[in-house]
Design a protein that fits this description.
Largest sheet: 4 strands, mixed
Helix content: 55-70%
Number of helices: 14
Radius of gyration: 26 Å
Strand content: 5-15%
Number of strands: 9
Distance between the termini: 13 Å
Shape: elongated
Length: 395
Amino acid sequence: MGFKLTRIAGIDVHVDWSLSIIFFLIATSLAMGLFPAWHPDWGPGLAWGVALAAAVLFFVSVLLHELSHALVGRRMGVPMHRITLFVFGGMAHMDREPERWRAELWMAAVGPVTSLVIGALCLLAAGLFVDMARLDPADPRAFLEALGPAPTLLLWLGQINVLLAVFNLVPGFPLDGGRVLRAILWGITGNLRRATRWAAGMGQAFAWVLIATGLLMVLGVRVPIFGVGIGGLWLAFIGWFLYSAALMSYRQLLTRESLEGVPVSRLMGTRFEAVAPRISVQELVDAHLLRSGQRAFPVLDGERLAGMACLEDVKRVAPEERAATTVERIMTPRERLHTVAPTDDAYEALSRMGELRVNQLPVVERGRMLGLLRREDVLNWLALRQGGEPAAQPS
């Protein structure tokens, strides 16, 4: 859940509320840890001001990283209309996977390159403010203390972007380096499924390394670069996220391969309860909602779909008013409904359910209701098709 921030080059930029977690952690660690260590003479106001600016500019860097993926992907023929910034950074959403390994390669590689360029430019800009000849590698403290707010900000931002690029180049799917590895394996073998399985396996192995490293830090073991302490929990959490993402990415590929080319008409349910628009909400509750496992009810005017009514619509009506309120007054009208046609691709329909966070979509042809495509029906079909392997919900 979140909100739309802006639109750049035809690509919607969304911000997930989880972004506030990492924003708070970055700003707090800089304002109360790193910057006071670098600048003991800074007051809290200055430290917090630079820290907040650093956190904002870091996510601008992440946005540019993801925007490079989206623009190159679109140039290579992969439809991309949305970027989401969230707790682990960002994600450029693909409407479908690349059809050629070269498209995957260029689209994946441009992200780390963008971060490296941003990092290099920030470090070069920081160098314009200071005399690098004053830097004593044996005792950098005096050099750091002499830095003003602007070079301090640029120095940190440059370093963090270089680290971001290096981290993303790790050859474990779904990191950018893992996608580069998958593209290369795909080009060598000509088999996308096999390449994804191998790259996802590398991603899971790297995730376990992060989890183990984080736990060792929590147990008091000093790890080079990362140090020691409770911060290891964050590293372990990142590892868990990468493990889940790698596993889900492979399962999502299996789902796409199973559903692409399968028409909605093959999976939709044709047996469903419908209600008339002029019955009361109380009748909807007593005769349908309480007696059926169906979650949403098509409202039919003859054979034509007029709208959909569900429990959430009923909740908006006070109990004492339900007998006098008709279903047509609470339903979501046809014009605002998301529907699918019987000839639509089942994978695209399942993806749309995920995006809309709904469990069913009406199947409509020329205004006539033909059936309901339910999420559970699709997943059951996939489980039978894939021999019981859990199916993934496309994002």
